[in-house]
Write a structure and sequence with these properties.
Blueprint: H1 2-5, H2 8-30, H3 34-42, H4 49-73, H5 77-92
């Protein structure tokens, strides 16, 4: 009932935010076992080829999420967030050269 009272632009913004939150959480959960694998060499063991592939995949997942986390950790991030959203949207626009 409350969702009907909100303007359409706010509903769109809210649904986009929820979608991105789910994506970031999904990426972080997928990379959950990364730290014990990284510490394996530090503790004197070696990585198997399968573990190396899993590490590479986990680090790539974290690299995809890192811009989101960086913006949230910066001081004044709430002020920068609209500019960051604009920049992310701008990257999706294809050039018409």
């Amino acid at each position: 009932m409350l969702a009907l009272a909100l303007p359409a632009w706010w509903q769109q913004f809210s649904s986009a935010q929820r979608r991105e939150v789910r994506r970031v959480i999904g990426e972080l959960v997928a990379a959950r076992g990364l730290m014990p694998q990284l510490m394996k060499v530090r503790n004197g063991d070696t990585w198997t080829p399968e573990e190396r592939l899993a590490l590479r995949d986990g680090l790539r997942r974290l690299a995809k999420v890192s811009p989101y986390l960086l913006v949230l950790l910066m001081p004044g991030s709430l002020l920068i967030l609209p500019a960051y959203a604009w920049w992310l949207d701008r990257r999706r626009i294809s050039r018409q050269d």
